[in-house]
Amino acid sequence: EPALSSCSAVPSARKRGQQRPGKRPQAGRCSGREGDRPEKHRREEAAEGGALPALEDAYLSILEGLGENPARQGLLQTPRRAAKAMQFLTKGYQEAIEDILNDAIFDEDHNEMVIVKDIDMFSLCEHHLVPFFGKVEIFILLTFSPPRIVEIFSRRLQVQERLTRQIALAITEALKPAGVAVIVEASHMCMVMRGVQKMNSRTVTSTMLGVLREDPKTREEFLTLIKN
């Protein structure tokens, strides 16, 4: 088999099995372009606060566990790319509701029901680490701009029921509205790609707080709006 690069930091699964226990290779240190990649990786790791190498090493183990050769051309940079993708998909852990709401709240006396529909949502199932995605609808008695709240909580390992309630609670705690309702409709890839394997299956969850939960008249208005 021809050499793919002069770097040997990412061995094949067969060669790695010959190493002593505890002598773990560093992931993603080699590339077809010698010289510039290691320094670039070090800069990336410093910028990411040191979390990137651990994730990268974990993806290297996954490839080896699948019986793949991480040193082959198509997989040379896969552990690093996958690690950076996972950091992006879970960036909600690093963000705070207070930071994104500072510029989103308007000082207005608005007592009508506001509906924000079709907020795209992408998250990762915490049980299988595969995606679930769909739409979020937010009903609230206050004017504000909520999509970033959805992103903060969806960019984490989640279950849909908890995600729905977290969005509603965050809005309630930060904005103190008279009432809020959140509806999430999503497709779960752990049900589409595995398990029941039903392509068109969708899960709907909802949370109502404040007057939307406690006042029958307001709740009736809310349910009428949903039907329409």
UniProtKB/TrEMBL annotation:
Single GO molecular function: GTP cyclohydrolase I activity
EC class of the enzyme, as a word: hydrolase
Pathway, per record: Cofactor biosynthesis; 7,8-dihydroneopterin triphosphate biosynthesis; 7,8-dihydroneopterin triphosphate from GTP: step 1/1
Catalytic activity: GTP + H2O = 7,8-dihydroneopterin 3'-triphosphate + formate + H(+)
CDD domains for this protein: GTP_cyclohydro1
Basic and acidic residues composition bias: residue spans: 31-46
EC number: 3.5.4.16
A GO cellular component entry from the record: cytoplasm
Biased composition (Basic residues): 13-23
InterPro entries for the chain: GTP-CH-I_C/QueF, GTP-CH-I_N, GTP_CycHdrlase_I, GTP_CycHdrlase_I_CS, GTP_CycHdrlase_I_dom
GO terms under biological process: tetrahydrobiopterin biosynthetic process; tetrahydrofolate biosynthetic process
Keywords annotated in UniProt: GTP-binding, Hydrolase, Nucleotide-binding, Tetrahydrobiopterin biosynthesis
Residue span, GTP cyclohydrolase I domain: 56-226
Xref: Gene3D superfamilies: 1.10.286.10, 3.30.1130.10
UniProt region (Disordered), positions on chain: 1-48
PANTHER family with a match to the protein in the record: GTP CYCLOHYDROLASE 1, GTP CYCLOHYDROLASE I
Family statement: Belongs to the GTP cyclohydrolase I family.
Name of the protein this chain belongs to: GTP cyclohydrolase 1
Annotated source species: Gopherus evgoodei
Organism placement in taxonomy: Eukaryota, Metazoa, Chordata, Craniata, Vertebrata
